[in-house]
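ESCALATION

Customer reports they have been waiting on this structure for their group meeting. Please prioritize. Original submission:
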Amino acid sequence: MKPHNDGPRRPLTRIGGIGLVNLATLTWATNMALGRWLRNDVGPLTLAAARYSVAALVLAVLLQRQPPSGRVGRGSRARWLGPDRWLLLGMALSGVVIFTPTLYLGLRLTTAVNATLINGMGPLVTGVLAALMIREPMSRRQVVGAVIGLAGVAVLIPGGFPSSGQAIRVNWGDLIVLAAVTLWGVYSVLGRRVMRQRSPLSATALSVFLGLPFLLIAAIWEIHTTPIDLDPIHILALVYIGIAPGVIGFLSWNAGVRRLGPSGAMVFYNTLPLYGALLGYLALGEPIGPNHLLGGALIVGGGLWAAECFT
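Update from on-call: job pushed to the front of the queue and completed.
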């Protein structure tokens, strides 16, 4: 039997990976919009717990279709922990338990402009982590593409470039957001290791199952200090957040990482502010100016260049 090749070298594999990671960032852009809408009604820990509770139910149903003891990839069982249990726990802690609350905390202490610019550093941070953790060095194209994408983020967000003689002030919120970006980079790198032996569905589901108990405990504590205010519309929003960003987004991201590698996939993380701007225009009536068009072109172009779509 011909061994599976999960490298990003084949054109169709690259194109499929690009589509998957962009689907993930699009669903996460909708999550950020809904998260802002719910911020006065549901605390960040409770929102994260509700999201992953719904996601866990959907993932459990999907995982039931996998053979209970069948082999996935190179030998891991789809439904059970194996020798990679510690890597899965690392995915759970970095990408499920800590990342989202950390990002929300940072957004309480810094501006959206600063937070978005710092998120644009994700490709560079992930590339460095991939080189250190799994010896997957960034190519020159990936470095150039990441820098182009970061420039696009700076152009896209109004006020992204400081005025003459001024600089973006770094505060604790900036450092916390940078920590969140680093956590997501760790999740992506660990996911790359896990998915050498598991399917994206298995890796995503088991990491969510492992992380959910931590979030539920934290949510119980938060509800005692920050009561929630829900109506049927809010509940529908929570269900959507659990299914679209929580399941579709994670599965798409992990499948994209499997095809492009963590540093190659992370380049497209910069499309998140682009999709956020489009959602703001379509759903909230916010204007789109030349800076959005130029920034979007740089973001998409940098990602395509890094993924070697122009060769």
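Sent to customer with the following note: The first strand starts at residue 71 and ends at 72.
Escalation resolved.
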